[in-house]
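step: validate -> pass
step: tokenize input -> pass
step: predict -> running
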Amino acid sequence: MIWRLVRRGVFAVVSAYIVMTAAFAVIAFTNDPNVGQVAWEASNTGRNITEAVQAYREARNLNDPIFQRWVSWLVGITTGDWGLSYSTGQPVLDVIWSRMKYTLFYLVPSVFVATVMGISFGLFSAFRQHSFSDRIVTAAAYLGLGIPNFWLATVLFSAAVAQHQIIAFPELPITSAALYSFDFTLLYGFIPWLDPNTTQGFFVLPVITLTTALLAGQLRYTRSESLEYIDMEFVKIARAKGAGPFRVARHVLRNAAIPLLSLFLTEMLSVLVLGVLVIEEVFNIPGFGSLMLQAVGARDMPLIIGVTMVVAFIGIVGNFLQDVAYTVLDPRVGSETD
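step: predict -> pass
step: emit ->
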């Protein structure tokens, strides 16, 4: 088992460097879109266009041999030097982290709530197959799958903020200090309770939007995978020994966990990448999704490559964690090659 994890870890590292090399190739073998902008500005200011372009290339080491640039690129990415953003003049990693804090504030609760509720209601529905409650849960899942993220986000914003003002729109610009400053009050005089500020209350809407998309898929996957194990012998034996519904559900979930992990990871990555773009555009959140759109709009190549690599690295790390979970849940996975 240990050697399998070591091999998968090495594979993850190699995959990361392949991604870095591919990102470098995009930069090295395509025309820099900002060269035209430099030439246009030089012509408008009366400077020599050729000299301005050469100065631009020298400042970014674009005239160095390609192998030297590739080695410098790999060393820089490995040591945390991802270059400077053209549009902000700040280090790319600093720009990404400053925006990622806003995305994580609604992303982490959404994933947690969707996972817990999806697994719980999926098992509940599977153990009550063809019952009225099963039909209700299934219909809710199909409804969640059928509602477009952009439509739900727009409706929630229009109804709760713009029209009825149930939730107040926070002061702009939204700051991370307002998000991560938590105040507590005593409910009924003795129960500690979070007292959210205006900004934190506003982020309930993105959480609802993203949770709806994730919950529907996880619920359906959990139900379908659990149904494959409910009538198997180990379940019948557990019931014959007097195991309660929670214990039986735990046995079913443990066996269904491996295929569920693959489905969850694939579904989650696709929903998250597309979902954050929609959510942050509708709710005007200065997070990672809006940063991707701004980088493309500004033709900021270092920032575009940076956000692309972050998404790729998340996929690589997620795949590695999936392999670790496989090995922990079922040590027989890959044992024939150990």
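step: describe -> The mean pLDDT is 81.
step: cleanup -> pass
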